[in-house]
Structures are given as C-alpha cells and as structure tokens.
Amino acid sequence: MGGAEKHLLKFLPEVKYDKFIISLTKNKSIGRKIEKKGIKVYYLNTNYINFPIQILKLIKILKNEKPNILDSYLIHANLICRFIGKYLNIPVINSVRNDYSYSKIYSWLDRLTSPLVSMYTPNSFALKDYLNKIKIPSSKIEVVNNFIISDELKNPKNIRHKYNISKNSKVFICVARFVEQKNHKLLINTFNEYLKEDTNAKLFLCGGGPLLNHFKIKEKNNKNIIFTNTVKSSKNFIHSSDIFILPSKREGMSNALMEAMFLGKTCFVSNIKPNTQLINLKTGYIFSNKNQLLSLMRKKSYSNYKKSNSKNLIQKKYTLNKTLERYYSIINRYI
Fold first, then answer.
1. So what's the pLDDT on residue 101?
2. Would you tell me which of 96, 211, 216, 256 could form a disulfide with 122, CB atoms 3.0–4.6 Å apart?
C-alpha cells in the first residue's frame, strides 16, 4: 500500500460530502478497507487489452452517479479524468503526489492536458514548484498537505525484544515501498559500511514492493538488516528505533516521515524539496550523498532540540482539521 492509498484510507471517511471511488485496478486490500468505512468502490481492473472497454464502463458509472466533482489521484488517473471530465462537463481536481520531471513523457502530457484541469492539489509546496515549472499557473494550484491523526500513534510499544535487539544497539529505520525512487540501494550500502564500525547496529526496512525480493536475496546473510515486509502499522517499529532515514530521490510528502517526527525521532532525509519542507536545520538532518549519510550515522549523539521542534511542527501544521479545512475551501467552489 503506497502513500496515496494510505492517505485516502484515512482522509475519505472524514470528508462530509457523499463520495464513491472508482479504482483503475482490481479489488485489493485497500479497496476492501475503504468499503468497510461505508464508501462505495468500483473496480475496473484495467489492462492494455481491456482499456477501451473499461473506459466506457467508467463513463457509464459516472453518468449513473452524477458527481459534482472528479477528484483523481496519481498520474494515470489524473490524465484519464481530464478527458472524461471534459466529455461529461464535470470539474476535475487533480491530486499531485509526485514530481514527474524525471519523465519527459509524463511532464509533456501533464503540461499538454493541463487546460482540462480545474484545480491542482499537490500535497507539498515542492510539488507546486514542479507544477509551476511545467507552466501550470499558480491560480490553478492549491497545496493540500498530508496530515497525521494523533490518536493512531498513541501508546506505541517497544518491540526490540521480538527481534533480539539490545537496548544499547543503535537502530535505524526506513519505511517506504521498495521501488527505485525510494533509493534503498544507497541506504543499504551506507548501512553496511557503517556496520564495519558498529557491528551491533540494526536496520528495520518496512515495506513491500517490486524490489523487495531483490534486496532480500542480496542481503540474505546479513543478520543486521530486518525486512518486515508490509506492516499494518509502522508505529511500533518507528518507536523501537533511534533514527528514521528517508533516502528518496523523489517524493510527494512522506507519511512515514511525518509519523516519525510526531513520535519524536531523530530524522535523516535526502536533500530534496519535499523532504526539506519538513526537515531543516531546526528539525533534523539532511544529506546529499553516501558520505554525508555515513557521517550522520557515525554521530555519537543527536539534538533533542531538533526532535522537539520536529514533533511540534507536525502537531501545529499537519493536522486532519487543517487539511479538511483547506480541502473544503477548494471543492466548495465547484458545488
């Protein structure tokens, strides 16, 4: 389950308006969880072969449901909804969760079809910069940040004993899907270098994804790296760690990073704008390459001042109520 899906699972049940979901994919666990919240979900199970037929099915669903707004998530859904919104005369809001400047095709399509979008809602100011870069006017962009539900992070448990980890061991953690952009390769290589100096250190890697088995096989004899696979909640793993690391090459806004900040952890992040919107010199540590990350790992102590500032930032600015308030101010323009 990726960040966008986790966001929807937390966010949609709190939205006061009637809503339904159309998934381009097949019925997965995220869909079933959302259905349990009382939200109707349609599954198109699209692929290259059935795509035209499923698009017709999508149009039929929308004609029957008659929504006031189409709010889409992720690039493929965003592009499809632009054309369908134009055809059915429905305003289109595109949630932007990633910077696609790495892809000339996506960036070109994004820019070319942008007149079909009523409003863009990136989840960080860094993504607003990306949209401006592809010539989207600021008047069509409203940042709607991710958020933390504090009740979900109450009463975390220390689970080091389950993994035979000493209380004196230095424990690092990364919570991210195993895909190229999350840059696990850099993290694992740097951690293995650090292990030469601190053989008791541990690294939790929480998440699933297409590259998970590759790294599991590569590190099969490494007892200091713990692959947890996808976990229902990362709260206890983060709480049981000393340092949260996010080495991503690209991000929108990391939910896991926000959880780590709320839980008062020291955070190391790669030097990209979506990360540095949250982590700066007052709230954590930033690295740009392997040597800088290794130097941070080697530090003997870390600032409690930064950890305190980090938690306060999340508590004050990244709450459900603030996100809902921002979201309502946007959709009320089209209802």
1. 85
2. 96
